[in-house]
Amino acid sequence: MKLVTAEQMRELDRRTIEEYEVKGEVLMERAGQGVASIVRRLAEVCGFPGAMIHLIAGRGNNGGDAFVAARALKESGCAVEVWLAGSENQVRGDALIHLSRMKKAGIELIELPTVEDWDAAAREPFYAEIVVDGVLGTGLTGPARGPAVGAIQYIKTVQRDALCVSIDIPSGLNADSGAAEGDAVTADVTVTMGLPKIGMVKPSAIDYIGTLEVIDIGIPGEAISDVERTEPLEFIHAADMRSVFPRRPRSSHKGTYGHAWIIGGSRRFSGACSLAGIAALKSGAGLVTAIVPSGIHAVTASVHELMVVAGEDDESGFLTANSLAAMEDAWPQMSAVLAGPGMGNRDETRSLVEDILGRAGCPVVLDADALNVFAGDAAALAGLRKGSMVLTPHPGELARLLGVSTTAVQADRFAHAQKAAELTGAVVVLKGAGTLVASPEQTLRVNMTGNPGMATGGAGDVLAGMITGFIAQGIAPWDAARAGVYLHGKAGDFAAWRKCQAGMIAGDILDEIPYALRDLMIR
Prior knowledge:
- Helix content is 41%, strand content 14%.
- By secondary structure, the protein is α/β, with parallel strands linked by helices.
- It folds into two domains: 6-231, YjeF N-terminal domain (Rossmann fold, 3-Layer(aba) Sandwich); 243-520, Ribokinase (UDP-N-acetylmuramoyl-L-alanine:D-glutamate ligase).
- The strands form two sheets. A ten-stranded mixed sheet has the order 8-17-16-15-14-13-12-9-10-11, sandwiched between helices.
- The longest helix is centred in the first third of the chain and has 23 residues, at 24-46.
- It starts with 5 loop residues before the first helix and ends with a helix.
């Protein structure tokens, strides 16, 4: 999905209204209904039946979206309260139309026209489970002014007790730069309209945006096609991922969905292959076999759905280069191979990984220590592998692979992810807030699902297993990587909403994979 500037989005709105004759109030209705849908889903997953929703509206179009959302939420059984950062007589245009409709639906508008009003409100008890930020939109330049400042500060205060959904963009954030030039709202979910804005995926915006959802408000495809990219970057969106997963034939069987092999594990990291293997199975792979050191065979085999082969291990509990002898006849059966989780970083490990790359006749995913053994030698991977390859480094692993510092990678994640893809010839997944998927042949993609609760041991093993499971089913590595990061983040979001970020473990992400898939497909 394209990323646009604020000006490009305004032009798309103008063309839709003037050339395609869609009324502005209709676009606003669609936007507000989309916000209401996301808020209802959030309340449902979080276990807030009959949730109290507190909507904070500005005087412009974002306020209009909030008025529509309030009406739709009330109609669906939620309790709503709407406050305005300003006076009712300052509301104009389409927003005024929807304010009138909201009031006819029996929803009172409470006016707070001064910063002092908002300061006083912040000292009162707060009861809502979700606060909706509809104060300022993508037209903001410079710091917020007037009562909007008080509203933003109020939202920041009540966020200690409520989840926050921002309409179009967190109030106070610049849509093009992603910078907050004054106070800005920190959203749990941002629901943006039409297309995502370029500033939302920049590093300066990451801590403000939260999970980014995009609402289709009916901008014609022809108009979107006319928009030129301002940067070589696109957004990973559910609409782009649905076509990746074909309908499963009723006559299919476990062999239809491939055989994924996972090679790794050690005495110290005994759970890594189990996590990856379960993730591959829950992502739809028909069969998964793990090759692990003999010393942890019983631990891995306790996962009943996994097939487990005992490889040769050394005195320290790591796989030796001879471990592949146990799978001599298995290479033709493999649909995808994942190497690296828990494997350990030793001289012998590189020989093992090189052997896998040379012998596997299917796509190979390299994670963790299978990447660390090539520290400073990324170009060597291109010479070792003639088939498809996916690399899934976190910033530290990518830094080691490229021979630079982690600080350098994080300072320009886009450039370093693309450089790694070009050096290795692989699809590169650079993990982190705003996970990137790079390829020598494709436009760089950025993902905005996920949350800080996923910063927990084993979460990367789950992602690597998901990507491997998708590839095993016959999904192209590029598509599998994009789908993997999107659905991994979505599963993490569901886990955080059902529980909490601080209490999450990798197993919670595993549990949510089927629900994330169901969110994307009907079957």
